[in-house]
Specification:
The complex is a heterodimer of chains A (252) and B (71). Chain A is of the alpha/beta class and 252 residues long. Chain A has nine helices and eight strands. The mean pLDDT of chain A is 98. Chain B is built from two helices and four strands. Classes of the chains: A alpha/beta (252), B alpha+beta (71). The interface between A and B is medium-sized, with 34 and 33 residues. The structure holds thiamine diphosphate and iron/sulfur cluster (SF4) (3 copies).
């Protein structure tokens, strides 16, 4: 079959390096979604990502944009600094749940509460991926991890933390949505949410975050297909999808 | 002109997410091995309708959508 014209391929904002992520990892899907949005908004030359500590520590290897990398949990603080120094840049803090919801809890709460004009992409895969599958604050009740081999018991290990709901009650947060990537339909909703978040940042409206429920087949010990099912059946039940906040912060 | 999906076999990691998403069941694993040791997918171009759902799901940007000349 003779190829005539490319209709859709890798977005310009991603380079052609093969990503180090495991087969079926949600990070790869979300990287592509972010890159497609960067292309659509035409902001590749003024976009800065902040990579976290976690599997996506090497996100900067793959984006054809500027990138920084922050100490564990500190990406929102670094993003705040970059945005304040260079307000014309579009700044994304990209973080996992260990990074954002454990060691980085202080940074994310205060960046949101200050109404920093940055966008956070929060990859909730309910586990510490990079270090070998330890319990994260977002690990579900009963979910097995290497540090909760019998399943998470809330009497010993506390409850899974709902970050989107928490940040939505802060007066400084502008837009908070939780999405997932379990089907083309959900992928497109995630894309719409990420686009809206960057657009609000471009208008100077303040802190935006998209939490993406994302599969980690390797540390969940599931096939990529069953990992999507786990998100659909187990994670969405505890972490409902939807918009948690969409209100202007400053009314002047 | 029709649209068809094409795989870059070297990029494919055999995760199968595209297979789950394809409405025409026209994607399967081939018996080939790429240099990383994965069996890349193959696409039955007779059945492919060019919807791009496989691209939406692929974590490794291994699939492209092309306009093709009818054979
Ligand atoms: C200060 C510090 N403490 C602990 C670690 C070890 N560490 C590396 S990644 C990680 C957690 C990563 O989990 P998550 O943020 O959920 O990202 P994922 O790998 O699942 O994408 C931890 C605890 C570290 N690198 N630095
Ligand atoms: S360990 Fe999990 S989060 Fe990390 S690359 Fe593999 S699948 Fe993705
Ligand atoms: S473009 Fe659509 S029909 Fe063709 S292989 Fe991909 S998902 Fe299947
Ligand atoms: S989704 Fe991509 S990497 Fe996974 S099997 Fe299909 S082409 Fe290969």
């Amino acid at each position: 079959m003779e190829k005539k014209k490319l209709i859709r391929g890798r977005p310009d904002a991603l380079n052609d390096k093969i990503m180090h992520y495991c087969p079926g990892c949600g990070h790869g899907i979300v990287h592509r979604i972010v890159a497609e949005v960067v292309d659509e908004l035409g902001i590749k030359d003024r976009f800065v990502g902040i990579a976290p500590v976690g599997c996506s520590v090497f996100a900067y290897w793959y984006f054809n944009t500027d990138f920084h990398q922050a100490a564990h949990g500190r990406a929102p603080a670094v993003a705040s600094g970059i945005k304040r120094a260079r307000p014309e840049l579009i700044v994304m803090s990209y973080q996992g749940d260990g990074d954002l919801a454990a060691i980085g809890t202080a940074e994310i709460v205060h960046a949101a509460n200050r109404g920093e004009n940055i966008t956070v992409i929060f990859i909730n895969n309910a586990i510490y991926g990079m270090t070998g599958g330890q319990m994260a604050p977002t690990t579900l009740i009963g979910q097995k991890s290497t540090t909760t081999p019998l399943g998470r018991d809330p009497r010993k290990a506390g409850f899974p933390i709902k970050i989107s709901e928490m940040l939505a009650v802060l007066p400084g947060s502008r837009y908070i949505e939780r999405t997932t990537v379990t089907s083309p339909k959900e992928v497109n909703k995630t894309k719409k949410a990420i686009k809206k978040a960057f657009e609000l940042q471009m208008k100077g409206e303040g802190f935006t975050m998209v939490e993406v429920l994302s599969p980690c087949p390797t540390n969940w010990r599931l096939t990529p297909k069953d990992a999507l099912k786990f998100v659909e059946e187990k994670m969405v039940e505890y972490y409902p999808l939807g918009v948690f906040k969409d209100e202007p912060v400053f009314n002047d | 002109m029709a649209r068809k999906a094409f795989v870059d076999e070297e990029r494919c990691k055999e995760c199968g997410l595209c297979i789950t998403a394809c409405p025409k069941s026209c994607i399967s694993f081939s018996s080939k091995l790429n240099s990383k040791g994965f069996h890349p997918i193959e696409i039955d171009h007779e059945k492919c309708i060019g919807c791009g759902f496989c691209i939406d799901m692929c974590p490794d940007t291994a699939i492209e959508l092309w306009e093709v000349a009818e054979a």
